[in-house]
């Protein structure tokens, strides 16, 4: 291992090295500088001596030979250990001290910790932010296994949206290398690293609502009929329904169009959402049809409590709180017994509210 | 720069097993090491077609649609969403079952994309259908004394869908392996509902030409054929219907050998993965009976 990074350093020296506080140059006769030492007129043997065991050299080697070189993956790994994106000139001492204890960051519901391994290598571990030291965790070590963990939530329900805040708990990856970490994160949150990186560089290609819907074909073409150039309240409703942090951890960057921003808060997530996703488009198809229906006046006789219960029920379903309501907590609007009581009292034999038909007879 | 393979499939918002064939075949190909990167991408899941190429490091990417027929998804949706510059429906110069590959540039990333025809219309798919018959009967020599029904949607959805079914039925008929071979459809004649009426032999293997198991292959077709009145109650293998034994295979796309067709598609596009093809065939215990 020692010879590998030293060989690489000697080979590269003639091109000049300047990275994270390390400066090496020369060909046959070398200079070697770090914030702590400044050596000149070194023979190759002397360069090899001083390079062996130098954290500056192993750090340089890690970032150039052991880390994925694709810009976005590299930048992500820098972020993971809280290193500046560009090479730094100061001492890496503080960063290394922090790495000894482990540097932890989050990415959606992922908690990523990096520590120093041997010869400047990094070891990454990955777990769910909600799992603590006393959680019972299943251990994994292959990034492909993340794909399976991302599929179902803790209730065993299918997660069609990978960035929904419903990632299952109770697992951990340890001993991952940089490539494997990036892969695992990619299985949990596909394409988030590359889109985050584009945004960091100011070149995230956002496709707003109108252009995304205009691109649709087949059964989704109908959504364009929803846009009639007279305001975009309907898209506010979509964003409020599907794209807030409670539903998706991506931070919505797409707007109605280039000129008209949505008022609905786009969320605080670390990785951006660059266009309405397939779930939003599918939902919008249904919403388009629902919103095209004309309203109709119905007359119902309800008690004030029943009206409030209906509102509470809708709220509980919309916020995903139904499962939390205790069996005997009759005080809650969406309690099952209480809801069954409402149904028994107010539905007729055709399940119509207060016996009022939906269509006029 | 190393090459990458992207497998493009439909996926589902509702059915968690819809993506399983794409994952399974991708894993089989990963194991061979034939490509430095293998990625799955979906119309309904993530990574989306729109974003998958930017997650791939390679300058040259082979894209193989895990779809049965040449049509709406393979000729319109995937090229549009991958942003393949210069694509048009003539790019494959196909009669509906003869697509090979088109070399294009992805406007999003600048990568060179070898956009391959779908697995379903490749000749090797015929062998996968036969392999499926072997798997479901547990008999590597299945053929004599058996009929084979290849089942698809009808033309109501996509004209080329029926073409692919008939194409493979014809090819398998030409192998002289099964006593009878019949193409059947869900929503047009000849219909799957009357499956036993199309065969004289008593044993019939039924192979639906679908990529993933789901509503059609697990609920519709078994009920339509009379294997069961209610799919939830299940059925035997084989199940006795009108004096015939029906060996119902489920979606052909779940057959491990389909990974071979994915690789064959990339070979057509210039990938040097012959070794991987051998590995996949050996691992899926394919008998040596390929046409080539």
**By helix and strand content of chain B, what is the structural category?**
alpha/beta
Taken in chain order, the helices and strands of chain B follow as EHEHEHEEEHEHEEHEEHH
The structural domain count of chain A equals 4
Do you know the CATH architecture of the largest domain in chain B? 3-Layer(aba) Sandwich
* Unreliably modeled segments of chain B: 287-292
Main β-sheet description of chain A? 5 strands, mixed
CATH fold annotation of the largest domain in chain A: Gyrase A, domain 2
Which chains have the largest interface?
A: A-B, 30 and 25 residues
Q: Please report the distance between the alpha carbons of the first and last residues of chain A.
A: 84 Å
Oligomeric status of the shown chains? heterodimer
CATH class of the largest domain in chain A: Alpha Beta
> How helix-rich are the residues of chain B, as a percent range?
25-40%
Key words describing this protein structure:
heterodimer, A: 361 residues, alpha+beta, Gyrase A, domain 2, Alpha-Beta Plaits, 4 domains, four-stranded antiparallel beta sheet, 37% helix, B: 292 residues, alpha/beta, Rossmann fold, six-stranded mixed beta sheet, five-stranded mixed beta sheet, 8 helices, disordered C terminus
Brief summary of the model shown:
The complex is a heterodimer of chains A (361) and B (292). By secondary structure, chain A is an alpha+beta fold.
